[in-house]
Amino acid sequence: MSFNEKNETQVSTRKPSFEGRDSFIEQHSSRRTSTDNLNAKLANPLAGLSHERLLADAEEFAKTHELAEYAETIQKGALIAQDPTAFEKLPMLNEADRFILRRELTHKWDQPKTLYYLVVMCSIAAAVQGMDESVINGANLFFPSQFGIQPAPGASASREQWLVGLVNSAPYLGCSVLGCWLTDPLNRWLGRRGAIFFTATFSFLTCIWQGVTNSWPHLFIARFFLGLGIGPKSATVPVYSAECAPPLIRGALVMMWQTWTAFGIMLGYVMDIAFQNVPDSSGIRGLNWRLMLGSAGVPALIVAVQVYGCPESPRWYMMKGRYPKAFESLRRLRHTDLQAARDLYYIHVLLEAEKEVNKKTRNKFFELFTVPRNRRAAQASSLLMFMQQFCGVNAIAYYSSNIFVEGGFSQTSAILASFGFGAVNFVFAGPAIWTIDTFGRRNLLLVSFPLMAAMLLMTGFAFWIPESSPARIGVIALGIYLFTAAYSPGEGPVPFTYSAEAYPLYVRDIGMSLATATLWFFNFVVALTVPALLGAWTPQGTFGWFAAWNVFGFVMSLLFVPETKALSLEELDQVFSVPTRTHAAYQLKNAGRNFRRVVLRQKVPKMPPLYEHEGAIGEKTYAPGGVGAA
């Protein structure tokens, strides 16, 4: 039997018949699949080993990797790594060791200064990302007229509008066609720190390059090359943070990428405000927009200077066979040698397991689509990445100043209003760290999509208010701000988080590459087309267009996006092994029942659970929690 044949839907599922509650679930027989075996191996390579075998393996590891002087500490670390919750019962540990491990659980944010220095560097790198995206917003008010591509008032999808869109979208074209695919070779050759240094330096130089351009083709080329810095940096920094962070706070630190990207977007608008009234200097025309675009290079330069003060990723050192360097790095990132030894040994056995898995899966990209479980994960994550762009947020992020001017704002007021958009985005991105694990990914989507659609319609309709009425600009700004407040804790953080956990471990890297390439390609499409849409359809039609996509996103999330919050690898395999039609039919029927129960106040029986683990728990049923709750 081939590997792909083994991976057909073998995990236990429940099949709906819709003939009544008692006949809703039909239990299929189940058997262990190759995917299950691969995931189990990657989930905990130490599971099932006796303590005697584990101690012998750890001692051999220390001797053969130039760490013999730490052999006893590594043996202790191996025992803890096998089951981190069982340290109280390990006879090899003394009371001082147990105190360290207890304190790690009760004071999870008590970490070495080196780790927090690394966190600050990663946060500034995220802010660079946000500034690269937003500084163009204010510059859009100035450079088109200087380069002869200013759209005429009332023009409908003119050549100039397409050219403005092309210049704006250039970095995301660079990301999708080249930048994202440079991530692996840069990391392989230069390491995590080297890749961050290269991309930050490249971003700095291209930001300065943007500021000295003398035509729109020249500006397009400079911005295209900016994408070669944005793409690998956006993929490398979260990975570097995850590889260096302790497990207990890893998720929160990785989530901070989204929060500080939102901060960078806000900071980009601050730069637009700061430089908008800068007069031209002798021989320099358009100094204001040049300073706007160049300002994003300053934090990039800070990252380039700062990064080599951080330790290299221990995992990267170990991939290169430099185990003493990896242990030295971990000792800087952990309080004690015991914690460093535990993480060192676990990374080692995980890397060995990955090598074994790679021998069995030669074409991982192909298996994203041929294995049904993987295909459903790719379908859901790609849908969310697509919707993050077509929900309309970046139409506002890149063109809000133009939109506000068309709504009757002055240029100064438009840039200030754009700063308000950035501030709301940043403020509401913070709570996402809590809400995403409290309410769940799916529920956040099902709430945020309808709210975003309603706020976009409100904004678009506001353009029909007479220009003489002061309510016009107030309603436009309010609609955009409320849209942003709905986006930031929902469709903002969910796509990256969802994509990172939906795929099986053995194809997770290639799955994330597919997800990020999807994101940047459709980012390019949105940035390219919005000026022409505003000209052809007016703001009313453009906001209505994106509102319709949010309705589409709600329906697709309801039918095709399962919940992944707090599920084990085995449970995720079960969730994504439910046939797409079965899941969609169940959720559609459940939405109807919830409408009758919540809106019509009728008494309707609860839906039986769709997944085996929910039935076992006996509490996670679908009736509570709103339409299509999961």
Number of strands: 2
Overall average residue pLDDT: 86
Q: What CATH first level of the largest domain would be assigned?
A: Mainly Alpha
Overall form: globular
Percentage of helical residues?
over 70%
**Percent of residues in beta strands?**
under 5%
CATH architecture field of the largest domain? Up-down Bundle
Q: Please identify the structural class as seen in this structure.
A: mainly alpha
Name of the CATH homologous superfamily of the largest domain:
MFS general substrate transporter like domains
Number of helices: 28
Backbone CA Rg = 26 Å
Across the major sheet, the strand order is: 1-2
Helix-strand blueprint:
Elements: H1 3-6, E1 14-15, E2 26-27, H2 34-43, H3 51-64, H4 71-82, H5 95-106, H6 113-139, H7 143-146, H8 159-179, H9 183-211, H10 216-244, H11 247-275, H12 287-295, H13 297-306, H14 314-319, H15 323-333, H16 337-360, H17 364-370, H18 372-390, H19 393-406, H20 411-429, H21 432-438, H22 441-462, H23 471-487, H24 494-502, H25 508-560, H26 569-577, H27 580-599, H28 612-617
Antiparallel strand pairs: 1-2
Helix pairs in contact: 2-16, 3-4, 4-16, 6-10, 6-11, 6-12, 6-13, 6-19, 8-10, 8-25, 9-10, 9-12, 9-13, 10-11, 11-12, 11-20, 15-16, 17-18, 18-24, 18-25, 19-20, 19-25, 20-23, 22-23, 22-25, 24-25
Pfam families: Sugar_tr
Domain Major facilitator superfamily (MFS) profile: 118-565
Family: Belongs to the major facilitator superfamily. Sugar transporter (TC 2.A.1.1) family.
